[in-house]
């Protein structure tokens, strides 16, 4: 009798790009707190659908102000809970009226017996609201320690909580999240990608024109990520850090002071992502006044245009150019949209030709893949360290 030998198990391919629930990178990202909404986007009593890392969820704010994140579908017939109604800090399905509390336990199921109500429960996820941002934890077990954003800024930045101008922002981009993660360390792109937004003769707000130069960089591997600093002797250099797996910290000169930003690139699916930023402008009283005056006109300027990702699509189709959006308040993002949405290296691996200016990007890829491999091998790498 011939023995049948089962085939050897196929080695799991590690990649930073695919982040669905059963992928290595997806499991890795889920082991960290992830921002999911600006606080202002979720009013009291409102429920909304949410898609993160190719999974659907329901998010709502109860009347007490508590943010609750649950599975997408009602366990009865799987209709979307996001079309239900908030009652107190609970959610009631609009199909047959089953009601679930903030802890996920069923509180009411009209027409059903008490035993069903007692045993029925939906999955909920830990949330935390800080700095005007709602964060969620999608992993298993207890969530890791939360980010010390204030302390991190004091150590690596300019103490952003002391800045006269602070706020939050978000945008959506039609490309894989990891392209944007790497972009934070790609300082060589600024001189060309952001040439228009850095020109004060064309644009009112933007980078200081002095940043639009190619400089050499120093690259440093930290315990929690990679830092890239421009070598500059006559001015304060641009500095950026990527904190694994998908956060970034930036300090860059503006026309009125310095922008400091902590942001996250969060996958919607493998072809789209959103970014959430906590921002500060370090400037003097006159600079703050000019910025507030510009912000007062911000909404009127935005109303002239479709969403920024749609503006970029028009450019990529050859219908418009960046100059058509010269007065757009988010021109910097549109510039990044265009180049990142036009990149093809994910679909055509091996076609890149990385060079000297990409040394920070290369360090990040190696570190990301090393930490991902450690994570899949069971190493406890979800401690943020910052």
TrEMBL record:
Q: Where is the Rieske domain?
A: 33-136
* A Pfam family it matches: Rieske
Please indicate which superkingdom the organism of origin belongs to.
Answer: Bacteria
InterPro entries the record matches: Cholesterol_7-desaturase, Rieske_2Fe-2S, Rieske_2Fe-2S_sf
Q: Name one GO molecular function term.
A: 2 iron, 2 sulfur cluster binding
Q: Which UniProt keywords apply?
A: 2Fe-2S, Iron, Iron-sulfur, Metal-binding, Oxidoreductase
Record flagged with keyword Hydrolase: no
The name under which this protein is listed is Rieske 2Fe-2S domain-containing protein
The organism's taxonomy opens as: Bacteria, Bacillati, Actinomycetota, Actinomycetes, Mycobacteriales
């Amino acid at each position: 009798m011939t023995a049948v030998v089962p085939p050897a198990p196929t080695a799991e391919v590690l990649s930073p790009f695919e982040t669905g629930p059963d992928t290595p990178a997806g499991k890795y990202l889920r082991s960290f707190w992830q921002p999911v909404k600006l606080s202002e986007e979720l009013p009291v009593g409102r429920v909304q659908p949410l898609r993160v890392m190719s999974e659907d969820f329901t998010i709502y704010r109860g009347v007490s102000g508590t943010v609750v994140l649950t599975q997408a579908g009602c366990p009865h017939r799987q209709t979307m809970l996001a079309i239900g109604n908030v009652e107190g800090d609970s959610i009631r399905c609009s199909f047959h009226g089953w009601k679930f509390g903030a802890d996920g336990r069923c509180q009411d199921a009209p027409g059903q017996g008490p035993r069903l109500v007692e045993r029925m429960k939906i999955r909920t996820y830990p949330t935390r609201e800080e700095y005007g941002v709602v964060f969620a934890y999608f992993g298993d077990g207890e969530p890791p320690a939360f980010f010390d954003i204030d302390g991190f800024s004091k150590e690596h930045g300019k103490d952003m909580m002391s800045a006269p101008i602070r706020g939050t922002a978000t945008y959506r981009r039609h490309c894989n999240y990891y392209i944007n993660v790497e972009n934070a360390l790609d300082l060589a792109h600024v001189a060309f990608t952001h040439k228009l937004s850095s020109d004060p003769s064309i644009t009112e707000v933007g980078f200081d024109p002095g940043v639009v130069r190619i400089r050499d960089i120093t690259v440093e591997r930290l315990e929690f990520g990679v830092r890239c600093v421009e070598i500059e002797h006559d001015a304060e250099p641009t500095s950026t850090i990527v904190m694994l797996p998908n956060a970034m910290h930036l300090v860059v000169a503006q026309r009125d002071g310095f922008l400091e930003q902590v942001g996250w690139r969060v996958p919607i699916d493998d072809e789209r992502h959103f970014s959430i930023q906590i921002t500060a402008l370090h400037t003097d009283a006159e600079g703050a006044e000019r910025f507030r005056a510009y912000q007062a006109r911000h909404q009127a300027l935005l109303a002239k245009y479709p969403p920024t990702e749609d503006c970029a699509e028009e450019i990529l189709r050859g219908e418009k150019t960046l100059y058509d959006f010269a007065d757009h308040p988010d021109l910097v993002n549109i510039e990044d949209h265009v180049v990142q949405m036009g990149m093809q290296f994910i679909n055509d691996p091996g076609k890149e030709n990385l060079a000297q200016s990409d040394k920070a990007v290369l360090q990040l890829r190696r570190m990301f893949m090393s930490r991902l491999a450690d994570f899949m091998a069971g190493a406890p790498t979800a401690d943020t360290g910052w």
